[in-house]
Design goal:
The structure is a single chain. The chain is mainly beta. The protein has eight helices and 60 strands. The two termini are 60 Å apart.
């Protein structure tokens, strides 16, 4: 456990001083790496950008963007200070750091104690220690507390144990057990101990060194004082009588500016002047870095979307400690190879604009990954044509479907698709591609008010694969998995004839409308035709007895079967003939209403079939309850409605 975390030291280290070749100042990590600012444990870190690494509820250390400037505590209960002086708690929570209400204007944090700008000292649980006019605090949690007032009073365990003449010259302090150490800006370290007293039982402070730049008591064990000197070496004081002086330096530690004593005097962390950290453990020195992202997993909501769809990008970063963390959209850098096909929205989502393939590069935590999006057109275009063995397709609709802009100029067309610019004119085999003259396979033609061009141009200019489907008489354009179909005037008839065998069974049949497209309920209609449209879908044509025509919305062939099999849309019987009910009952049913006394058949026709039924018997009565998906319910006793909850 750290004995002390404070802002004052951070401010003092920001002042550049040079001692024996060691430059102190704002340190930084290796290029491209966010430096560590403080360490509570190998799993709980504060980074220079204010973000945190901390354990969640399942014990995994994960990164969290935040605006922290100081932290204190352990893996499971930790606190910190935000950049605007608020207290927050974190560690052992799945929701990340949370600001603690009611704590503002915090200057310093030391374990469970906090110092406010007004000089008062509180605990993180809101307890007032009654200390006033305090300049610095230090804590070893349960094992010690120290404070220094602005007037120079030194507190140990909330009792005054001494006085210093110039409190402003003390830049930091550390406490443990029954002792507290003060570090002066001159480099002097003075220790107060409750058991180091004179004959009058007055505490006698003693000086350990005059060359220190950082001090910290170890978090466990004998409570040795770990001292970083101006020359970058790290020492600890001796034991027993030798505790009043530095014992010997730690081998292997040099160019050190501060330590994080999260364990014993033989296991702690130290930061070098270049910003890097090391761990000293049992005489060995090991490099220590914050977990780094090693890989990215990119998932998109659809790798093969349709024009008009929105694609959501999801990114999971895998770190060197094994953590897998979702990267927020604002932490991603996304670039699109072909922005005329995919438009990056401010939300980080992709809007599909045209048919084709485009690579999407996603960068997070310095790692880049690429995913290919193949976008197709959901509905077919019309119309294609074959003349003298050449497949023609319409200029405007095809190029616009490919995400291009089409403008007219000088009696012809100018098409821009990404970095490709085309110009062509009806009746002229000469065209230009990116400013260079090319010869088309055939001159564009004007047919039925539209200009058609030879589809081979799509291969030459955009790399498309174009084929003619002789079965359905349609042009099929593909960019890998991205596809576009352009049907001819014959396609609909071919498709209709191919599918009419299964759909013809419905032609001539009569039905009564239940709920369909807002039509009048129980109106008799007869299927007069099932017509494929230009996209390959089907429109059902109905006629009423008085000759009025109604058309359904376009639907796939398979849905026609589903539609007529579903009594919620159409009934295959005349309900007025099947049920001899009163006009008032029919009026309620047509309005979708249920009233007391209705039969089960009447409720079923009014509200439809329930999602759940239950039947029970009591006192010679049969009780049945129907519950619908919207949680409306109807109760029947012997087949009659007795209660309605809606």
């Amino acid at each position: 456990m750290r004995k002390l975390l404070y802002l004052t030291l951070a401010l003092s280290l920001a002042i550049v001083l040079t001692f024996n070749g060691v430059q102190l100042g704002k340190v930084s990590a290796a290029e491209g790496e966010i430096g560590i600012k403080d360490i509570l444990s190998p799993e709980t870190l504060l980074l220079e950008d204010g973000s945190l690494w901390a354990k969640n509820l399942v014990g995994q250390s994960v990164p969290t963007p935040f605006n922290a400037v100081a932290i204190s505590g352990d893996d499971y209960e930790a606190y910190g200070i935000t950049s605007n002086g608020e207290l927050f708690g974190f560690g052992g929570t799945a929701v990340g750091p949370q600001v603690v209400p009611g704590f503002m204007g915090i200057k310093q944090l030391a374990d469970v104690y906090l110092l406010k700008n007004d000089g008062t000292v509180w605990t993180v649980r809101g307890q007032d220690t009654k200390l006033k006019d305090i300049a610095l605090i230090a804590s070893g949690k349960e094992s010690g507390f120290g404070a220094l007032s602005k007037s120079g009073e030194v507190y140990l365990g909330f009792k005054v144990v001494g006085t210093v003449t110039d409190a402003s010259s003390v830049i930091s302090m550390s406490a443990a057990d029954n002792r507290v150490a003060l570090l002066y800006d001159s480099g002097k370290v003075v220790v107060y101990e409750t058991f180091n007293v004179d004959d009058n039982f007055q505490i006698v402070p003693y000086t350990v060194t005059e060359e220190a730049i950082h001090i910290s008591y170890e978090a466990a064990g004998y409570s040795s004082l770990i001292v970083t000197l101006r020359d970058g070496s790290v020492w600890k004081n001796g034991k027993s009588q030798d505790r009043k002086k530095l014992d010997k330096p730690y081998n292997g530690l040099s160019q050190i500016v501060k330590t994080a004593a999260v364990g014993s005097a033989t296991d702690f962390y130290a930061q070098r002047s270049d910003g890097s950290w090391v761990r000293y453990k049992n005489g060995e020195v090991y490099p220590f870095r914050a977990p780094a992202a090693k890989d990215l997993e990119i998932k998109v909501s659809a790798e093969k979307p349709y024009v008009g769809d929105t694609v959501v990008i999801g990114v999971t970063a895998t770190y060197s400690n094994g953590a897998k963390v979702a990267v927020p959209a604002n932490g991603l850098k996304v670039s699109v190879q072909k922005p005329h096909l995919l438009s990056l929205q401010p939300t980080g989502k992709l809007k599909v604009l045209g048919v084709g393939q485009s690579q999407v590069n996603v960068t997070a935590n310095g790692i880049s990954k690429t995913v290919t999006i193949s976008s197709s057109l959901r509905n077919n275009l019309s119309y294609s044509k074959v003349l003298n063995g050449v497949v023609f397709v319409p200029v405007k609709s095809v190029f616009q479907a490919l995400g291009a802009t089409v403008t007219t100029a000088n009696g012809g067309f100018v098409i821009k698709a990404g970095d490709v610019t085309l110009s062509l004119k009806a009746g002229d085999k000469n065209a230009t591609l990116n400013g260079k003259s090319i010869k088309l396979k055939a001159a564009p033609i004007t047919d039925n008010g539209s200009t058609l061009f030879p589809s081979s141009l799509l291969t030459e200019a955009l790399g498309a694969k174009v084929t003619w489907n002789s079965q359905w008489k349609q042009a099929e354009i593909a960019f890998g998995d991205a596809k576009l179909k352009v049907v001819s005037t014959e396609t609909a008839g071919l498709i209709k004839r191919a599918n009419q065998g299964s759909l013809a069974q419905y032609i001539g049949k009569s039905y009564w409308v239940n709920y369909f497209q807002g039509w009048d309920r129980f109106m008799k209609v007869t299927v007069s035709d099932i017509v494929p449209d230009s996209t390959g879908s089907y429109v059902i044509v109905f006629k009423t007895p008085n000759g009025k025509t109604f058309e359904s919305y376009p639907m796939f062939a398979s849905y026609v079967d589903t539609l007529f099999a579903d009594s919620s849309s159409f009934l295959n019987y005349d309900p007025y003939k099947k049920y001899n009910w009163s006009a008032s009952v029919w009026q309620q049913i047509k309005a979708g209403q249920v009233s007391l006394g209705m039969t089960k058949e009447q409720v079923n026709l009014s509200w439809g079939s329930p999602s759940n039924k239950s039947v029970s018997s009591a006192n010679g009565k049969t009780i049945e309850v129907w519950v619908y998906s919207n949680f409306d319910s109807v109760s029947f006793v012997n087949g009659k409605v007795t209660m309605i909850i809606a």
